[in-house]
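Limitations
The structure tokens in this dataset are predictions for the assembled complex, not deposited experimental models. Users should treat interface geometry with appropriate caution, especially where small molecules or nucleic acid strands are included. An illustrative entry is reproduced here so readers can see what is and is not provided.
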Amino acid sequence: MSLPDFELVKLVQLQRRIKPSLVAMQAALDGLVASDIELAAEVGRHVRQGQGKLFRPTLLLLSAMDGGEVPADAIEAAAAVELVHTATLVHDDFIDEAQTRRGRPAVNAMYGPATALIMGDLLYTRALRHLARLSLVRAFQLMTETAVLMSEAEMLQVQTRYSLDVDEDTYLRIIYQKTASLIECACRIGASFLPDGDAMDKMFQQFGRQTGLVFQITDDIFDYLGDPRRLGKPTGGDWEEGRITLPLIAAWRRASEPKRRMLNTLAGCRDPRERAASWAEVQAFVQAHGGVEYAYERARSYGEQAKQALAGLAPGPRRELLATAVEYVINRLN
Amino acid sequence: MSLPDFELVKLVQLQRRIKPSLVAMQAALDGLVASDIELAAEVGRHVRQGQGKLFRPTLLLLSAMDGGEVPADAIEAAAAVELVHTATLVHDDFIDEAQTRRGRPAVNAMYGPATALIMGDLLYTRALRHLARLSLVRAFQLMTETAVLMSEAEMLQVQTRYSLDVDEDTYLRIIYQKTASLIECACRIGASFLPDGDAMDKMFQQFGRQTGLVFQITDDIFDYLGDPRRLGKPTGGDWEEGRITLPLIAAWRRASEPKRRMLNTLAGCRDPRERAASWAEVQAFVQAHGGVEYAYERARSYGEQAKQALAGLAPGPRRELLATAVEYVINRLN
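Predicted assembly:
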């Protein structure tokens, strides 16, 4: 983590409002990761020490708040959702052959691919077993729907790797299934604990989905601009690994035929070093055609829709806190 | 598949008795594997074409039989169990770096490790989503308990690889969690559809567990003796990959200190070629100390316990068919 990170401060302030629930959620997480098998326990500790910002469980707990109270089962469900998220990161890092995760060695880099695969499976199945043991039927239904969507997105991403044929619709499908679906799922599981949960489901679905789309588009923009929160973080990772994202898709649409041919040649190459070498040219192409601006506009618009969805909520601390959460995501770009 | 395979004929005859259910189960499987994502659909077809003997769904359907009828939901649950089994094979082949599965290229060998990992995840999550969508809560609970056990077994197997410290208890834990738990789970899910399912659960658990233990011990013996059903199938795969199984554990217990030291030296080496070269010596060691005979005795004893568990069932076609199933497993060794 690095220099002035005002937006993260906002998230931390927000989390302070639900601190007891978040603390209990983390204790539940520790329990879910513990194992009498030494290797599993060791990798589990490694994974837990690299804990992220807990964005998904935070949204789940906020969504489940009823008059300031969070039901005990919602805390358990929040731990399960964070555990599923962790499992997907372990498998993702394996797929991307990532060396680090949150500044620490990735599981596959540290323990090898077989252990990474098994650890992901173990975290995944522990999370689902937790929901099943608590008989949280609605939560495990939502969670398995989402787990399928996420796996499909990974497959679609492998299939479309290096392909400039990825259009905005395919891109949106991938980022919805890969990222937004779990954020949406967290909100809907949270809402399922509300007395009027059925009636609220649609609203939380909208809110979670749009917030999730903003989240991923923002991440994809960072890969072109650099993450303002992490000065010096390298850009171009997506390009290097053949992931075609919104800034490039938008730029491509606006480009002339000769420029497209030029980019086509660069995109066809699969050698990582050559791709790294062509990154400056790709960045210039995207800049010349306003690709980042377009992506930013889309993110802003999804953010507005997320906030509009909140209009269906009664005014009060929950609505304010959820609005702060979506502001946090949008403002990461400023 | 190869020459005189009388035992397999017995299984096929048994399956003929529940043919309509098995056909419906396979149609359900096709549906669960289908995808609008080309790559997923292609790998799915590849996996389906390598279909195995359907032992687990056969047991589930037999367990669910009530007066000759199999409930429609049991057929769907049987498809989910077979799909989970398929998912574990895809991940297992990746972990073992297997080149083939059932005489065809393994998914990892044909499509690469990333696709194998994702395909396993996709099949897994599709299976669990199927149970969740049908609101088969009991089946979902049993399945997630089992999925955790299987992942833990994989981890334990990685942890104890190459280690002669694996004793019979650890071995039994591994094979119960890795193999027997899913067979037990299939039987219990089947029984959950019976009107007196709760009362029958314990019996089907015993039957499934013991049958599953026989199944895996038998497989492990094949790796020393050669599979009598598949003439010329190479032996020593477990030794080469550092898996210490019951014949070796039993032989070790009976061996003198000098013989143990000799084996220790061989076991410490992790180079696959050197391990392959030491196989004849290991085989001789196991033979000299009656390791296979001991394992066979254990398998026979678990088989007897499985048949005893069936005594709790009312006489009739279901009991006969389940007895035939366990006979099939035991007799694979004759």
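Some entries come with short summary sentences. For this one: Residues 218 and 333 of chain B are 7 Å apart (CA to CA).
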